[in-house]
Each structure stands twice: as structure tokens, then as C-alpha cells.
Design brief:
The protein is mostly helical and about 450 residues long. Helices cover about 85% and strands about 0% of the residues.
């Protein structure tokens, strides 16, 4: 009888944890590495236009990050609710959550399409008076916003695949979107093979085409390869109860990621007061650090449904082992990233045709910022554990502390006290504070939420 029950149960409840975590995380880690690659390739080609083009894309990052925040945050809420419902054997509610997530993603696209169409110029005018940067930036943001249907649909359909443990298919969709972007970038930016030369706008167009293709493939995988969930917007209308369940985790996640946009906008303002080159360095850092952080986020995406499922199934030992292994793997990844940033700083910057001025600012900047990697792995996993268990506001508190309460004020004070060269110390300082808070929160979650499951 026990064997028959195990055969019917989702693999997240019965497969050995290490094998399960690796099988679910590695495809996501690989696909996110490809994502990181196309982010770098995108900026690498743009940098060959001129430094103003690279600065424009760097200044546009808060808008991109905000779209990612809304799409990913909604997806996190859907993922956690669907996985928990499946763990409780409540398939009907899981389907309601899945389809409500699709509706919410459609509304998110419409909102960003309108905002980017009418307010892109205002957004850049607040940051710079350079006419070329302004022109590049406005065209870039309008394209990625008005055509953001792809990114929101890609997020939600990939999260539905992840929530049932089918991360292999999300590796395919993300990789395909990234490869299409990489191929189209030089063609659209420089006007190759008879295509018109679009420069920065070409980079934006290549990005959205890749996202739309990936979204279509993810939708097809859900219809054909994900029998545990059924996509039917006619059958499953918006439900206030389900939406509240999604956003109880999703809104803190959205706010948490949106805080990154506020932090980036604030840092850009602080750095532009010195030189636009410093802003370009900061933008390059975000592209490069994605090679380190994206695998950890892939690990997160594999971990969250495992923790959520076993929380619903009341299996505390599986939850604890998943968390311990995830933290171990994350710390190892961040240590490797730290070593690369310390030893290969100048070659990394030269990927973006860095001038002597950019190297002078960028080499010490990247070495100082990368000190924060030593604690970041633990903090990232801890925050995702809070989300998986429905405690999104704990993750929010950590993010607010890291990026608003500590990082931005520290950067501003350091800029006044020591100038441009010491601003970068704000990153390791903020990570120390947030890491300490994560440790206290994770102890609380173990004591109040996980341990009682075994009783």
C-alpha cells in the first residue's frame, strides 16, 4: 500500500532530497546562466556603439527590473500556492491559482504598456540632460514596455512548470529565448543582412522577440507536458480569495524586487553627480554579477516548490534537508564568483570596451562590491524559504533593510565623506546587516513553522 501511495505522489514528496534538488535546480541554473550570458552580450554590443549607449541601457535598468519584479513576484506567489495545494492534494484549487496567475500577468502587461508609452521621456529626463543618452533610453524603454507581453507570459507559464517539478522544460524555454536574443542583437543593433540599423532600439527589439518566442513555447509545454494543471481562462475566472492567496506571498516579493529598482535609481543619481562613467561601471557590474547570482536564483527556483510541497504534506525533515543543502550550494557558488571578481576584474571590464577611465573606477569598485558575495548566498536562500512558507513579509523586511535602510543611505554618506572611491563599500556593509537579520528570521521560522510539523 505504501509503495502504491508513493508512486501516485509527486516526486517532490518522495525522491531523495539531494537528487531532487539537483534534478530540479540544475536545469534552472543552466538556463539562467544563458540568461546572464545574453544580458552581457546585449550590453557588450551596445557598448560598441559608444559609452552613452551603455549608460542609457544602465539607466533603463530600473524599469526592466520593475517589470521583472512584478512578473517574477506574481510567479512566486502562484508557484508557492500551486505547489502547496498539490501537496495537500487539492488539485482544483491549484488550477484556480494557476489560471488566476495568468489573468494577473495579462493585467500587469497592460499596465506597463501604458506607463512606458507615456512616461519614458519623463523617467530619463529626471536622470540626465544628455540628449543622446535621453534619446537612446526613451526608445529602449518604450519598446521593452509596450511589447512586454512576452516577459509576463514567459514568467507565469515557466512558474507553472516549476510548481509541478518540470524545470527541464523551463530550461528549454529560457535558453531558446536567450539564444534568439543573442543572435538578433548584432543583426538589429548594427543592421546586418539587410536589416535596418536600429542601434539601442535594436537591442530592445531583440530582447522582446526572444521573450515572446519563449512565452509561446512555455505555453505549449503547459498544454502538452503538464497534466497536473489545466490552462483554461474561460473556466477559471478571477477569484478574490485566490488572488489574495497569490499576493500574500507575491506582493512582498514584488515590493522586495521593486526596491532593487529604487536602489538602482538612487545609486545612479548618486554616481551621475560624479561622472556618467561611474554609472556605466555600475551598469556593467549588474550585468557581470548576474553570472554569479543567476545560478543561485536557479537554485532558488528548484528549492521553493520542494519546500512548499513538503510544507503542505507536513514533512519537516525533507524541508530542513532541502534548506541545508540549498544554503551549502549557494555559498559555494558565491565563493567561486568572489574569486573570479577579485582575480579577473580588468579582463571582465574589457568585455565592454572599457576605457582607461572606466578601468580606473571599475577595478576597485568590482573588487569591493564582490566582498558582499561572501554573505549573499545565505541571505538569498533564507529569503526564498520565507516566501515558500508564506512569510513573504519577512523577505520584504530583509530586502528593505539591505537596499533602502542601509545601502542607499550608506552610499550617500560615503559619497560625501570619501568621494566616489568609497561609495562601493555600502554593498558589503548592507550585506552584513541583512545577513544577521536573515539568521534571526530563519531561526524563528524553524522554531515556529517547521519543527511543529512533525508533532
Amino acid at each position: 500500500m505504501k509503495n502504491n501511495m508513493n508512486e501516485q505522489e509527486n516526486k517532490m514528496g518522495v525522491m531523495p532530497i539531494n537528487k531532487l534538488l539537483i534534478s530540479m535546480s540544475v536545469p534552472m541554473m543552466l538556463s539562467m546562466l544563458v540568461q546572464a550570458l545574453y544580458n552581457v552580450v546585449d550590453s557588450m554590443f551596445v557598448a560598441r556603439l559608444n559609452e552613452n549607449a551603455l549608460t542609457a541601457v544602465s539607466l533603463a535598468f530600473p524599469v526592466q527590473n520593475l517589470m521583472i519584479a512584478v512578473g517574477a513576484g506574481t510567479g512566486v506567489g502562484v508557484n508557492a500556492l500551486v505547489s502547496r495545494s498539490l501537496g495537500e492534494k487539492n488539485t482544483e484549487y491549484a488550477n484556480k491559482a494557476a489560471n488566476n496567475g495568468i489573468w494577473l500577468s495579462i493585467f500587469s502587461f497592460l499596465a506597463f504598456a501604458v506607463l512606458s508609452a507615456f512616461f519614458s521621456h519623463t523617467f530619463f529626463a529626471v536622470q540626465t540632460s544628455n540628449a543622446q543618452i535621453l534619446s537612446y533610453g526613451v526608445s529602449y524603454v518604450r519598446i521593452i514596455g509596450i511589447m512586454s507581453f512576452g516577459i509576463f507570459m514567459q514568467f507565469i507559464f515557466e512558474r507553472l512548470l516549476q510548481s509541478t517539478g518540470k524545470t527541464f522544460y523551463t530550461m528549454i524555454t529560457q535558453s531558446l529565448g536567450a539564444v534568439i536574443n543573442i543572435i538578433l542583437d548584432p543583426i538589429m543593433i548594427f543592421g546586418l543582412f539587410g536589416f535596418p540599423r536600429l542601434e539601442v532600439a535594436g537591442a530592445a527589439l531583440a530582447t522582446v522577440v526572444g521573450q515572446i518566442v519563449a512565452a509561446c513555447l512555455a505555453f505549449w509545454f503547459n498544454r502538452k507536458k503538464n497534466p497536473e494543471l489545466h490552462v483554461s481562462l474561460r473556466r477559471y475566472k478571477l477569484s478574490g480569495r485566490v488572488v489574495r492567496g497569490i499576493y500574500s506571498v507575491g506582493i512582498p516579493s514584488i515590493i522586495m524586487a521593486s526596491i532593487g529598482s529604487v536602489m538602482t535609481f538612487g545609486m545612479n543619481k548618486i554616481l551621475m553627480a560624479f561622472t556618467s562613467t561611474a554609472t556605466a561601471v555600475f551598469g556593467v557590474y549588474f550585468k557581470l554579477q548576474s553570472f554569479v547570482f543567476m545560478p543561485v536564483f536557479g537554485l532558488n527556483n528548484g528549492m521553493v516548490p520542494i519546500v512548499s510541497y513538503n510544507f503542505g504534506a507536513r514533512k519537516p525533515d525533507r524541508i530542513k534537508k532541502t534548506i541545508r543543502l540549498s544554503i551549502t550550494y549557494a555559498v559555494c557558488i558565491m565563493l567561486i564568483g568572489f574569486g573570479v571578481f577579485q582575480l579577473m576584474t580588468a579582463p571582465l571590464l574589457r568585455i565592454f570596451d572599457a576605457s582607461d577611465a572606466m578601468l580606473e573606477i571599475g577595478v576597485p569598485a568590482l573588487r569591493i562590491i564582490s566582498l558582499s558575495f561572501l554573505l549573499a548566498g545565505f541571505g538569498i536562500i533564507s529569503s526564498s524559504v520565507f516566501q515558500a512558507l508564506g512569510h513573504g513579509f519577512l523577505s520584504l523586511a530583509v530586502s528593505v533593510l539591505r537596499q533602502l535602510v542601509v545601502l542607499l543611505p550608506a552610499a550617500f554618506i560615503l559619497s560625501r565623506v570619501g568621494g566616489l572611491s568609497v561609495i562601493w563599500w555600502a554593498f558589503p556593509i548592507s550585506e552584513i546587516f541583512s545577513g544577521t537579520v536573515c539568521f534571526l528570521f530563519i531561526r524563528y521560522v524553524y522554531k515556529k513553522e517547521i519543527n511543529p510539523l512533525g508533532k
